[in-house]
Amino acid sequence: MGKMLWALAGLIVVVLVGLGGVLAFDAPAKPAVLASVSDPFAAVDFRDLPAVQTYAARDGTQLGCRAYQGSGAQVVVLIHGSSDDGSGMHPLAKALRDAGASVYVPVLRGHRGSGRSGDIDYIGQLEDDLADFGTVLRPLHPGAGFTLIGFSSGGGFVLRVIAGRDELGQSLAHIEEVATALGGQYRAALRIRKPDKPPPPIYSISRGVGVHVFSAMPVVVNNHVAGVIYTSRTPSNIFDHLYQEPRNTRRDGS
């Protein structure tokens, strides 16, 4: 019995010494800074970054936003990514403002200074916050057209908003043109779309016929398909879209 106890104790000592050696000589190193994320902003001048303003969400929480007032009738709302607080959208916001648009960059709930840090209270709260933000903006720009643009995870959020909550989590990979694009090739399909709105006026008769072109364009990063841009259009010349655009795309990419 004594020999077994000594053997067990020796085994424990060997294991502990081995673990100590691993920690001492093979400790994990601090990961390097991800240059692809940090370098693009190294040369950005943030001295003219607008101060954060606030608006009240439906639960009373004060959420932040930055405003870039333009001179035109177009309003653009930019949605930042998960590692940002909206300041990374500064170069794009200035460019859009200089083109005439009024640009707003909300600081999403859970990010710097907007609500509880790093979290939300329920699924769908970000969508509610965006709706509340729209309620604040529309009286400031009566008759203006609104465009929603997202970057990185903000792009995914924008797609969810556009799709509506009934379609959250659903995949489009089963659609023929999307499946082709996931394989790395552009594809478009011509379909009859059943409108759920009244017929358009005469100047928009092309929309009234119900013919739409659904286009799927692969997004290739480092020779791998990272995603698909899927659009529905009523182009001025359907045949130009179906036959010339793919050729132009291949020519530009060659």
Averaging pLDDT over every residue, what do you get?
78
Taken as a percent bin, the fraction of beta residues is 15-25%
User: How many individual helices?
Assistant: 8
Pairing-aware structural class of the strands and helices? alpha/beta
Report on this structure.
Strand 7 and strand 8 form a beta hairpin. 35% of the residues lie in helices and 22% in strands. By secondary structure, the chain is α/β, with parallel strands linked by helices. The C terminus is likely disordered. The chain is extended and about 90 Å long. Strands 1-2-4-3-5 form a 5-stranded mixed β-sheet.
Write the layout of secondary structure elements.
Elements: H1 2-25, H2 35-38, E1 53-56, E2 62-68, E3 74-79, H3 90-98, E4 102-107, H4 125-137, E5 145-150, H5 153-163, H6 176-182, E6 187-192, H7 205-208, E7 211-221, E8 224-233, H8 238-253
Key features of this structure:
254 residues; 22% strand; alpha/beta; three-stranded antiparallel beta sheet; 2 domains; Rossmann fold; disordered C terminus
Nutshell version of this structure?
This protein has 254 residues and is α/β, with parallel strands linked by helices.
